[in-house]
Amino acid sequence: MVHSIISPSVLASDFGNLTGECTRMIKEGADWLHMDVMDGHFVENITMGAPILECVSKGVPGIFMDCHMMVAAPEKWVSDIAKAGGSLYTFHFEATKNPLALISQIKAAGMKAGMAISPDTPSSAVTDEIAQAADMILVMTVYPGRGGQKFKPECLPKVTELRARFPSMDIQVDGGVGPSTIHVCASAGSNVIVAGSAIFGAPDSKKVISELRAVVDEALKKAGGEA
Ligand code: DX5
Ligand code: ZN
């Protein structure tokens, strides 16, 4: 059974105080921290890599680092991110020729494996074999590359379709998610919620985290899942 997981995206945090920001989020109710790794190739921006994640993992004991790898060669960074303390390694379907081999590589390195699909990638990219091997599917609700973009509701039918096919799979949404868009995400069937600006930009992050969770829990209850 799936349950609600709230994963604030540190892209909207104060990078100069990253460990402090992560510690604060956990105190305010976050389950995971969403670490957006961008390489300047798969997407235009550059954010952070394994050395920074390693500092965060040392500075925030027990942290679950949900690593969203917006990188052109996801195979290349598996071992570095595992050594840095990554918990979940989510690669982009669009960036690899062999998702199944990559999932095995990630698991052999001791991490959970996730696969992300960008707005133009259909849900059929998630084959039964991939869904069986992976721990999570990320349905992007904006084009990857930067925070603070407008939510794309046209991506949600993919969540609905994936939830129907895989009732016990963790399905994450990322991009433009916040109190005004969480209802449609939750009723489509996503249970892992990433929010950057909506959480870090709020005067009371704790309130936003609990609001997001309440909406997901309610939708799961309605769907007959476990809240
Ligand atoms: C976008 C990133 C997101 C981003 C979300 O490329 O993958 O994780 O930080 O930020 P918001 O919630 O502000 O859209
Ligand atoms: Zn992300």
Structural class: alpha/beta
CATH superfamily: Aldolase class I
What distance lies between the first and last C-alpha atoms, to the nearest angstrom? 9 Å
Tally of DSSP β-strands: 8
| Count of DSSP-assigned helices | 9
By CATH, the architecture is named: Alpha-Beta Barrel
Question: What fraction strand?
Answer: 15-25%
What small molecules accompany the polymer chains? D-xylitol-5-phosphate, zinc ion
Strand order of the largest sheet: 1-8-7-6-5-4-3-2
Per the principal axes of the C-alpha atoms, what is the gross shape?
Answer: globular
> What does the largest sheet look like?
8 strands, parallel
Could you estimate the helical fraction of the residues in percent? 25-40%
The multimeric state of the shown protein is single chain
Q: Look at the structure and give the mean pLDDT.
A: 97
Radius of gyration, CA atoms, in whole angstroms: 16 Å
| CATH topology tier name | TIM Barrel
Q: What's the CATH first level?
A: Alpha Beta
List the domain count as a whole number.
1
Uncertain ranges: none
